[in-house]
Amino acid sequence: MRPVRKVLIVGGSGFVGTAVAARLARDGVALVVPTRRRERVRHLLTLPTVDVVEADVFDPAALAQLMDGVDAVVSLVGVLHSRPGSPWGPDFGRAHVELPTRLVAAARRAGVGRIVHVSALGADPAGPSEYQRSKAAGEAAIRAAGPEVEWTILRPSVIFGPGDRFLNLFAGLLQRFPLLPLGGAGARFQPVFVGDVAEVIAAALVRPDAAGQVVEMAGPTVYTLRQLVDYVGTLSAHPRPVIGLPEGLAMLQAAVLECLPGPLMSRDNVRSMRVDNVASGAPQPWGRQPTALESVAPGWLGRANRRARFAAWLLRRE
């Protein structure tokens, strides 16, 4: 297997992409991070090996230029909401299916050796949500890269860390409202730390045994959504009553939220929660020990004080 000296990170300006770029920069890997607006990635400009390029990754000519001299590609683009459609909506189709297909074609033409693609735990062509079905179609496009391009697919559970849109979202809602009506309160998740995801991506780029593998990524513990929201409320010093909604009311709530800009929840999100977001086996590959939520979340969700430590102890006992 040839060495990886230069990597194209598609979706490198986002939450996970920032962690991946920082991790690879520590190893001295040259990184190309495309973006439509350079000002969105100012936080990456301090990394010494990062080259930020204004480009449209859906443009074949631009994508060909981005692939020039690249040894590997990290594919991170994903969206949580889309206009509806069958078998998936157009926004899911563009981000989850069309883009991986274009990446594979461009990588083949450029002679790129490897693609590491981040999908999602629960990706399934017969899944109940458009999100899950489109993610599965994207995985199929990545598998088609072989044998010319070696591939690895990562399936993370919901990813947490400073700057996430999961725990921080609930922290903001709990600060603003006296109670929280919650669809999918009983849905089960196995959240994974963003630092662990970045480490596994870095390993997958260079490990020969990662080629052709679909790897699940999760944390050490399974929680219900209600448990996670309660924990966030305690850490952030804004505990609130959580009212679990049956699916019918959750769908009604989501339909209303869909009318808002940047919706917090969609009906497709509710359908996704019909399936537990839990690893089927070991939470992480290659003998890695996952980072516990309780060991890092107090650092940005609240004061690392007696209240936070007591909340972590309670959560582990439930």
Short descriptors:
globular; 39% helix; 318 residues; Rossmann fold
Please give the count of helices: 12
Report the uncertain regions: 304-309
Helix-strand topology string: EHEEHEHEHEEHEEEHEEHEHHHHH
Spell out the CATH superfamily of the largest domain.
NAD(P)-binding Rossmann-like Domain
**Overall geometry:** globular
Largest sheet, in brief, is: 7 strands, parallel
Question: Going across the major beta sheet, what is the strand order?
Answer: 3-2-1-4-5-6-11
Top CATH class of the largest domain: Alpha Beta
Number of domains in the coordinates? 2
Q: Which range does the strand content fall in?
A: 15-25%
The CATH topology of the largest domain, please? Rossmann fold
* Global Rg: 20 Å
Word description of this protein:
- It is a single chain.
- 39% of the residues lie in helices and 17% in strands.
- The protein has 318 residues and is α/β, with parallel strands linked by helices.
- The chain folds into 2 domains: 6-163 and 191-217, NAD(P)-binding Rossmann-like Domain (Rossmann fold); 180-184 and 221-280 and 291-317, no CATH class.
- The protein has a 7-stranded parallel β-sheet, sandwiched between helices. Strands 7-10 form a two-stranded parallel ribbon. Strands 8-13 form a two-stranded parallel sheet.
- α4 (130-143) links the parallel β5 (114-118) and β6 (150-156).
- The longest helix has 21 residues, at 90-110.
- The radius of gyration is 20 Å and the shape is globular.
- The protein starts with 5 loop residues before the first strand and ends with a helix.
